[in-house]
Amino acid sequence: MKSNKKTPLRQCIGCGAMKSKQEMLRVLKKNTGEIFLDITGRENGRGAYTCIESSCLINARKNKGLERSFKMRVSDDVYDSLIKEFDAIR
Questions:
Q1: How far is the C-alpha of 75 from the C-alpha of 3, rounded, in Å?
Q2: pTM
Q3: How far apart are the first and last CA of the chain?
Q4: Is the dihedral of CA 43, 78, 59, 68 positive or negative?
């Protein structure tokens, strides 16, 4: 008999699509205020998820998705560094 395990779903901060955690990238905010991509998905801190498409990260910048998730102001420099990190891993 198979067990009916639920797959954890997360909402993209850019497009709003619901996908499994494995299909998304985690943006992490540490207690120190540092914001970066969490490739492993296991770092400690507050997380927000985005699809693996760069358009979703650009949409998150337009609709202030990270600011809503982290309840703080996020500068354009942070978004620029996230886009660079995103392009480096793709």
A1: 45
A2: 0.88
A3: 39
A4: positive
Render pLDDT for 55-64 as a digit per residue (tens, 0 to 9).
999 999 999 9
User: The tokens 């299909």 sit on which residue?
Assistant: 23
Backbone angles phi, psi at 56, to 5 degrees: -70, -35
Task: Specify the 3-state DSSP secondary structure of 7.
Answer: coil
Per-residue pLDDT tens over the stretch 9-22: 999 999 999 999 99
DSSP letters, 34-74, are -EEEESSS--SSEEEEEESSHHHHHHHHHTTHHHHHHTS--
Closest CA to 11 of 29, 2, 23, 28: 23
* DSSP conformation class of 14: T
